[in-house]
Amino acid sequence: MLKINSAEFINKIEEIKTGGNDSGVNLTQNRLLDLNIELPEIIEQIQIVQEIESRLSVADKLAETIQTNLLKSESLRQSILKQAFEGKLLTEAELEACRKEADWEPAEKLLERIKGDRKINK
Question: Where is the chain membrane-spanning (predicted)?
Fold first, then answer.
């Protein structure tokens, strides 16, 4: 018996095809039917199918988990933005500590600086 991926099988195909190019023009059905191709035992075939199905199932669950987490992250992003615009991200004590930092500036000043940077970059 021949295994399809073996060098012996490839050589056998080369022997039975005729013609002037590699198209295998005369590689007829009868010639192919004369080849004995080795297949795994049915039990091994079933095991292979089960392994593939198991891995596909894991991949499907992983894709579902990723999609769920993407939706959660978008919801969290929206919640953070809402809290930021409402001024509820930090406590008063945390805000006071930030204001004491050397690089702190009010939002209005930051926005003006960003607009100025954009004009310069254009």
Answer: none
SS3 annotation, the chain: CECCCCHHHHHHHHHHCCCCCCCCCCCCHHHHHCCCECCCCHHHHHHHHHHHHHHHHHHHHHHHHHHHHHHHHHHHHHHHHHHHHCCCCCCHHHHHHHHCCCCCCCHHHHHHHHHHHHHHHC
pLDDT of residue 50: 97
Rounded alpha-carbon distances, angstroms, from residue 4 to 10, 26, 27, 72: 8, 19, 16, 48
Look at the block and give the residue holding tokens 């039975």: 16
Q: What are phi and psi of 105, to 5 degrees?
A: -145, 150
Token pair in block for residue 55: 């891995």
Query: How many whole angstroms separate alpha carbon 15 and alpha carbon 13?
Result: 5
Total-model pTM: 0.49
